[in-house]
From TrEMBL, chains A, B:
InterPro entries: Kynureninase, PyrdxlP-dep_Trfase, PyrdxlP-dep_Trfase_major, PyrdxlP-dep_Trfase_small. This is Kynureninase. The gene is kynU. Pathway: Amino-acid degradation; L-kynurenine degradation; L-alanine and anthranilate from L-kynurenine: step 1/1; Cofactor biosynthesis; NAD(+) biosynthesis; quinolinate from L-kynurenine: step 2/3. GO terms for biological process: anthranilate metabolic process; antibiotic biosynthetic process; L-kynurenine catabolic process; L-tryptophan catabolic process to kynurenine; NAD+ biosynthetic process. It comes from Amycolatopsis alkalitolerans. It catalyses: 3-hydroxy-L-kynurenine + H2O = 3-hydroxyanthranilate + L-alanine + H(+); L-kynurenine + H2O = anthranilate + L-alanine + H(+).
Amino acid sequence: MSLSQVAAGLDARDPLAGKRAEFELESQMSYLDGNSLGAPPRSVAARLDEVVRKQWAGRLIRSWDEGWWQAPERVGDRIAPLVGAAAGQLVVGDSTSVNLFKALVAAVRLNPYRPEILVDATTFPTDGYIAASAARLTGHEIRRVVPEEIPAVVSERTAAALINHVDYRSGLLHDLPSLTAGLHASGALAVWDLCHSAGAVPVGLDAAGVDLAVGCTYKFLNGGPGAPAFLYVPAKWQERFDQPLSGWAGHADPFGMTEGYASAPGIARARTGTPDILSMLALDAALDVWEGVTIEHVRTKGLALGGFFLRCLDELVPGTDVLTPRDHKRGNQISVRWPDAKRVMAAMTESGIIGDFRPPDVLRFGLASLYVRYADVLRAAEFLSGWPG
Amino acid sequence: MSLSQVAAGLDARDPLAGKRAEFELESQMSYLDGNSLGAPPRSVAARLDEVVRKQWAGRLIRSWDEGWWQAPERVGDRIAPLVGAAAGQLVVGDSTSVNLFKALVAAVRLNPYRPEILVDATTFPTDGYIAASAARLTGHEIRRVVPEEIPAVVSERTAAALINHVDYRSGLLHDLPSLTAGLHASGALAVWDLCHSAGAVPVGLDAAGVDLAVGCTYKFLNGGPGAPAFLYVPAKWQERFDQPLSGWAGHADPFGMTEGYASAPGIARARTGTPDILSMLALDAALDVWEGVTIEHVRTKGLALGGFFLRCLDELVPGTDVLTPRDHKRGNQISVRWPDAKRVMAAMTESGIIGDFRPPDVLRFGLASLYVRYADVLRAAEFLSGWPG
């Protein structure tokens, strides 16, 4: 059987195949960049129109009392099951970077008298930049270490560690339960960045006893470009969660407009300013595509897509330097090293196969199970096999 | 001539009268709450549809290189003339609270060895909460003082003062040039909150030599509920501007993804995370209503609306306790004390006259010149004169 026959068979039997129709994607588009910017669910444009015309124009200021003010917690509760969190522990708003700052300062306040923060040395840059800034303000030292070395490095000096669940460059999936347990054994807190795992792989935040986590919603959650991020504060820490961006929206009585700050009970204390409603409700609409789908479905297909892509590369482009682990220790992403990566990705994009390039020489292919077809990954491998062609 | 004849004449001669048609407002709606949430310009819904369908769906990740990434500075440059700033000094993004945090920490770093931050005691609460948090992290003392007393209180101990241009409760307009000059005379920096003045009154940031400023875009700039805020960093301070939310979007080479943080040149260093594009471009569309209008036009009408409203109150509800200065030391807002303020505002809202209530007993009426009619303020005064009716 040819690879294209195999792909056709896999697509025909794919239980998620019908989901692609819920996205605004042309049929000839092979979109393998959902790990950078998720594709738009069809429900988003109509919802935004409704929010502007019916809620904003029709109800004006009254809409704040008719669902807007509570949207950060309500939308958080919709994301919670995808990352293994019970309700009441996620809030949506601000950027990932801003939430990282809240989480890191709060973490060292939860775990005082320990001078050091460990930071994943393979992290997406913003995590390291924000950690350095937080440490400068709180007087902590930053120690950069690859996640695998954390168990050997963590000590009674460690207040917290900030780790990415999936390495944005290689696609390596770290062992969240085991690394979390290792940190806890030394009395350190585990702060996880879920940007590349939320909506792609099961996370199991509550089960692992994660202390704090942040994640973005514009990748595998399809919330839109720069959509608001989320912050997870588990019930066990909420009462002591003491965050530095203590704006009015996290106040116990925001409309009382009192002089002193008093944290709201529960997850609401993780809020900062007035919630950005247009983006928040676009994300809310985008989450409708999860109806009838669990994260396990998405993960199963993601691994199968990755496995098939690796098979295609092996057969069509033997010798390709695959950065991503071939076993299941990977996110829903395959990365390969390619000498003229920037040029080949520009040419692929021209031909309707969109992945992305990370300097200096990495091609990344995101496998967003809700709309990527087996035929798409075959097409990417075929393009590479014909390059330069 | 009756008041309604006067109102009709004023509306007939209003050079801004045609602007109301650019907003999605029913003709029977008297919307006097644009100082809390501006009304939606008609261009917003169509633009959002275009951003979702043509840019996000049609171009997918490529849109980041086709205008999205630079949007924070580009939209900032559209707001700049409204607040008296030359281009290249405003960036749009994050909430007002988040920008306040950036501005205050940056201010004390610009002016070290001074232990005190003065905070406007009449401020909107979030400013005080954020200032307290910033001071806790930087080791500064907060001293709360009403703006009028700042010249007497500022000293060589003062690093910076955070002042609201317009008092959100009373509508009092502070003298920005004079207070700024007074702070400078003691070597202190002036940080202004323009939430209630941007889009309502001339601000003159550059002319006054303001050091840093923040403002929101969802009031008189009509950007939408929770629309992204702006941060002003004048050219004189950009090279030394050292802000605490140093995320990847403010990096000199964000896509280089290097380990260490290096601030971008210019205003871009005030950025933090990935820009929130849906909200940003909704605001961009909303700013189209300023075509052919200057802030001076808006201010002239705002004062005239306020003057007429005061006349209506004097004639129809004599003895009303007006909190807002009757001279021109006010923003485009009139506030009155009213015993059962909460109840009367609920009833007014029911009848299609929307203002707002601030505890314990203040009624606020925003005078957004682009869509408020003289007939609207007369209607509000008539309602109060018939209460309880």
